Amino acid sequence: MKKAFVAIAGCAGVCVMACQALDPKPGGMSEASRAAASPNPITTDARPPSTRVETVVNRLHGVDVRDDYQWLEGDNSDPAAMGKLTDEVATWTDAQNAYTRSVLDNLPGRKELEERLRPLMEVGSVSTPQMRGNRYFYSKREGTQNQAVVYMREGYNGESRVLLDPAAIDASGLTTVSWYVPSHDGKLLAYGTYRSGDENSTLRLMAVDTGADSGLEIPGKVGGVTWLPDNSGFTYRNLWDVKNPYSGQVMFHKIGQEVSTDAQLFRQFTPEENKELATTYGPYGGLSDDGKWLVLAYYTDTRNNDLWVADFQQWQRTGRLERKAVAVGEKGSFSADVYKDKVYIFTTLDSPNGRIIVTDAANPGRENWKSLIPERPDSVIQGFSIADGVIAVDYLKNASSQIELFDLSGKTRGTLRLPGIGSAGLATAKDRTEAYLTFTSYNYPSSIFRVDLAKPEAEPDLWERPDVPVDPSSVVVKQEWYTSKDGTKVSMFIVHKKGLRLTGDNPTLLYGYGGFRISLTPTFSAPLFPWFEDGGVYVVANLRGGGEYGDAWHEDGRLARKQNVYDDFIAAGEHLIQRGYTNSQRLAVLGGSNGGLLTGVMVTQRPDLFQAAIVAVPLLDMLRYQSFLMARYWVPEYGSAENPEQFEFIRAYSPLHNIKSGTKYPAVLVTAGENDTRVHPLHARKFAAALQAATGSDISREPVLLWVDRDAGHGQGKPLNLRIRDAADMRIFLMWQLGMLKK
Fold first, then answer.
1. Going from the N-terminus, what domains does the chain have, and what CATH number goes with each?
2. pLDDT band for position 44 (cuts 50, 70, 90)
């Protein structure tokens, strides 16, 4: 949903002591019993390459912390480039990658599986259109295209014209158009590109009518563009030093002038100015559609931010930017949009499930706030957008979407019709009630509908839906609630083919995230259907730390309460076993980024509960994570070992530091991207090396594999051919470990 500034989520994130992880738990098995009962009859002759041990002892708060593989971080001699890749680390990584390929590529059915997945991975995707007058801008990927192409239509059902084709920019498929923002009249298009997944977008500018490139280039991880209505300029957000992730700034570019003359409107604090706020996500900002007002935000941590409004026209006249505070120093998140000189604000302040207030743009202080849409006890506001005289509010209820419409006084105008229970989003424009609704669910392909917000009861009109070569109705979706360790009720979505007989021996994949107030809601994935066809069960758990049940749900899964997330995931696995879906030899876990930390914790806390784990682009060395790349952004979520109190609870769950030699660990596939600008690949390297050395399992049956993609980052922008390879790697690994392959 469109806002004047966009909240961003961190991605990367304490537990019982490691000895407890070795005890049999309800739903788990002893190590010996699991080894004897393993359903996997296939073994590999490959052996992991040797890794030299070079012990470093780091003393933290009087505690000696041993690190045998700190050299795998790379070169740390330059504080500005911590973890720079060295030749020795590159050679070691190549050897690990070769080992992983020798295992995965030789599993029976690997080639056939990739060909089975290919047409499902080639299913197209389409974005909701951005409306500018009679012009509609959207992106679409079809068939074998590696990257999405940006199109424009004259009229919502007019003929599509290609504006930006990444394949024409870079035939390798490694260049991504990461974002695009048309001017208000649709005559100009600002867009960003990056390569090989590094996410360091460079802004460029196109004349839409001719397709001509203006020659403008603004580097530095650019985003957040908002246009003046007369096309004379735009604001944007970038880094003044792309090597310093804590150098955010909001800038204004005047068309026709040199980038070097761009005005800085707002910037990140330096450590000398404010040590605490110098390493948060920092400043964001954007213009109102009429160009009169500038909304500025500064993130004080991962869940709270300050908010101001400034008279932008005054700044243009005088060069003086006077920020007027909406909220400063409050414990709540704030996102805002300006419409007809009123500021509409979504906030969690004093309302963990969210509420919407309104204030005057000229005098936006708290004394002028008016309650517009109050908090609800049974639903969580995810965001809002404004159309002509309409406020559309996106609610989550039991982790599924509802969109309710209100007039500008806060009076309800009805609920938008949705195709079912699932995830929905809405693209609006302030000059019309025409809007575009996106809807998806586990058994409903992502579809875009044209709707009229003045007639919420009307049947939505299908605008675009990619063809899918599967029968979505062949699977059943249900939601169950289970009880976590401390008695908290947690929900999960369970998906499997209709008529599946639950024998307690069904191969089951459990997915979770549990952090940064990110909500896991139903979404369609065609590549999952072979899993369902082969009798597999897919489960998504709505763990604490996420946003499915409001700010309090998130708060109960961060910092010293992070162990709640892991207890929730463990309880999810035990519930699936106790309910007769699966057993420990048929259960695998999957997670990426903060979810990779989650599955890394599962490996070290409950190795008896799962047969296999995929630990993707993970954080795993939680005692040193904050020193690399942009990771200090996440200190408010995890804490930092630099703090003596936080050191204790972080050390208790840090996966790298809870590996115990001789433990029979499950099979593990660890993945990373060499160009990741979020989570450093050192985590994957060190964890894989330590686990390979420590595991007491038979590595011919339950290996520890590492794959570091040299042409990728955190995952964004990866071309289709590499995504197909990765999907086949993960699926064949899971099928092998859960006994789904024939020898």
1. 18-119+487-737 (3.40.50.1820)
2. very high
